[in-house]
């Protein structure tokens, strides 16, 4: 029982990174129709930025949780303005290739500048230690990660459902042509939404910094799992991204505990099963066949 | 709305591309000149951009150049060859690329010796090429004992370290110090499996037992549950056989798990000083590991490390020092033989007792071509004890050359 509680917390903590990043991926796909392959690289940049800011100006994790996503927001908007925008009218495959190329570029630039061994990171001491729950010591930091992820996901959900901006974004996600026909300027929201999605990946990176090895390659495996997450949740579905993220985290943790050899395979088995049963994913909208 | 489906399919295909992207073939390399007997070419073949770049990588080329400089300074006009070149290639840790590059280096670039070659599978591929081409190969960066075991050959020499030496150092000493009950966590590929075998042997020989082993995917970034599982068995020591980024992930998550406070220690199978430098001494404090060489060992090694630092800005790992020594000993053998003819150079090397900046009580064993030397058991210092950058290790024991490596009689090598 104690072990199950521990595995659950570990699974949810890992799932937090997936949920946050997948949320960004879903929002971007929803509004722009772009499958952002550079999302893993943006996650990596978030972690690297946190480590570099700590090292150079002594910025603590608390501040980095706000500053780094803001930096990534600006960076994401620049990427959209300067690169992604030009390819939007073309086949979606062009942006797939663009973001894939961007990943290779960013990873190599970080390698060149910061080497391959990774960067050190120390979290604030307030997040050290463990809390006792039902006789099990649970790491404070993992609980903190879960808490932040849930809060952000809740915030994004409220933003999407309770505000006018959210309404427009949702309308643009669900029926872009219709939203445009009704006089909503969808184009105006494209740049900030892309930036917002990138900021979420950056936030996941900052949260991962104290817990994972900060290397140029840290996003390479992450993005693969992330695509499994959005396929399971349903491409473009916001709720699906969050549920899929936590679900995959849990599958990973329990897989590691009870079937270590198959831990990673299990995620893709889950993906295959979901796609077979519901091709649009758990929360994806079934499309009328053309 | 078929667009959406196209994109979904395409993204899955691309995910597949990403998975296999790491296995891509190497591009064509610049063609070298024809082989001339007027010069000696030393070729460095290692990981110039991936996970092992900081362990050895391009800085080993500088180390080899230092060996050439030292050789030329020592012999001056007496040197049997004036024109000595060093060339390098990136094998991306892939055996097939290593295989192709080794052929290119030997045939087209006229390499007389290939040095380094980390990653066991790649190292063994190059050994086969060395055997076929009858050219020298001095491995520094790989860990497999196969190089001097079943797959040994006349032209292959193995420097610095191997899995037997690591297990013998860390496994035996930690067990004898009271860590009798072990859990081993290892990456599920050749190196990890090899390490588990070697460690189990060493731990049992020391009077301990391995109560359980846990295989993990490779590479992997989430070890939290594996660690919890290993800790649940209440061992005295958890041994990890991971390296590079995986090791850093594992250590971060071990520190997070609180097992340290419960008195469950972490022993690391393979670690380089570049790992400590990357993660910081706080994270590794107290960790015991086996080291083939340490830059601050004594005056001789420190003097060399200072030179290296002037050139590169970093302190050397033992792989850098090992490449220097291998290049130097090769040139010494060429000097003695008066030719770069491989068979004659091998004759000079075999059985030679060597003493240099890297090798203490060194001997190039004739039976299996294992280069034996003193190795060290090191403990990572606490932050309070660090007096300068890279001052991370306290040497707690010197393991004499004869005891440090697998005895030649057990190697299973026949040339």
From TrEMBL, chain A:
Coiled coil stretches, renumbered: none
MF annotations from Gene Ontology: transmembrane transporter activity
Any one cellular-component term (Gene Ontology): plasma membrane
Any one Gene Ontology BP term: amino acid transport
Domain of life, per lineage: Bacteria
InterPro entries, alphabetized: ABC_transp_permease, BCAA_transport_permease
Key words of the record: Amino-acid transport, Cell membrane, Membrane, Transmembrane, Transmembrane helix, Transport
TM stretches of this protein: 12-31, 61-80, 92-110, 131-160, 189-211, 223-251, 257-277
Topology of this chain in the membrane: Multi-pass membrane protein
Location in or out of the cell: Cell membrane
Broad class of where this protein is predominantly found: membrane
Transmembrane helix listed as a keyword: yes
Similarity remark: Belongs to the binding-protein-dependent transport system permease family. LivHM subfamily.
PANTHER family: ABC TRANSPORTER ATP-BINDING PROTEIN, BRANCHED-CHAIN AMINO ACID TRANSPORT SYSTEM PERMEASE PROTEIN LIVH
Name of the protein in its database record: Branched-chain amino acid ABC transporter permease
Organism, as annotated: Nocardioides turkmenicus
From TrEMBL, chain B:
Coiled-coil ranges per UniProt: none
Signal peptide: 1-25
Pfam family, any one: Peripla_BP_6
Source organism superkingdom: Bacteria
Keywords in alphabetical order: Signal
Leucine-binding protein domain: residues covered: 40-381
UniProt-listed InterPro entries: BCAA_transport, Leu-bd, Peripla_BP_I
PANTHER family in the cross-refs: LEUCINE-SPECIFIC-BINDING PROTEIN, PERIPLASMIC BINDING PROTEIN OF ABC TRANSPORTER FOR NATURAL AMINO ACIDS
Assigned protein family: Belongs to the leucine-binding protein family.
Identification of the protein by name: ABC transporter substrate-binding protein
Species: Nocardioides turkmenicus
